[in-house]
Write a structure and sequence with these properties.
By secondary structure, this protein is an alpha+beta fold. It is built from 1 helix and 4 strands; from the N terminus they run H-E-E-E-E.
Length: 61
């Protein structure tokens, strides 16, 4: 397996990682709560209704 010949400096390492968060777009899903149906990130509580897996986990806005 290839190994880099020289170590990357902290500056170059940061520049290399600068766009890692842009690699994949956020894949939103709709809230499973039928009354809500707002877009939300998977595996997180819905920010609109505050439910996660059918249970109220945070206060609704």
């Amino acid at each position: 397996m290839p190994v880099p010949k020289r170590r990357k400096s902290k500056s170059r390492q940061g520049m290399h990682r600068a766009h890692h968060h842009l690699a994949e777009p956020n894949n939103f899903i709709t809230c499973p709560n039928k009354a809500c149906g707002q877009p939300m990130l998977p595996h997180r509580a819905c920010p609109a209704c505050g439910q996660y897996k059918g249970k109220q986990v945070i206060a609704a806005r």
